[in-house]
Design goal:
This protein has 199 residues and is mainly beta. The protein contains two helices and 14 strands; from the N terminus they run H-E-H-E-E-E-E-E-E-E-E-E-E-E-E-E. The strands form two sheets. Strands 1, 4, 5, 7, 8, 12 and 14 form a seven-stranded antiparallel beta sheet that branches.
Amino acid sequence: MKFETLLFGLLSLAPMITAGPLPCVQGTLASYIALGVSGCAVGKIEFVNFSYSAKAGGGAPEITPDLIQVNPLLGVPDAASLVFSANWQAAAGQSQESLIQYTVIETSPHTSGSLTLTLGLSQAGQPGAAVVSENTSVGDNQVYLACGQNCRGKTTDTLDFTPVPGHFHVAHQVTVNSSKGNTSLAGFTTLVNLCPRCV
């Protein structure tokens, strides 16, 4: 009787052991950090080990992880986006910085990949800047809006890479600052495409 009970218990746990991570759902960065090493998946791409740090200067409030919304989007055939949204803003003499880190896991082999970073709605004081840098173990992207006497910006940046490693680390550095006027950033999107030639 004890053997049958033990066998039934092991068999009922088997699907949970092999099921893999749960699908990523809309939530806060704090909820993504709480997933730990289990992480979550968008299609065939897994995102694990989220971490966060922030600092602010000149009296600007620090952005905490519960104030950052994360919205996952599935792409076709092997692409996944994470949209990060928050109220990053700096008045004259202020600055805010956020560092969001995580690991991307490839669950099936691919020969090439790409990362695309897109700047969300933003404005910059004069002078001021809203910058998102994406530093990864396969290469770097950067998008920004910077204003001095004139404004210049780059709203999209794409990096192609080959081969595709089994996993790679991603760090997003968000910086907003202003000397005069207000600088703000509503968010940014990162797209991981592990089959760019398939689309």
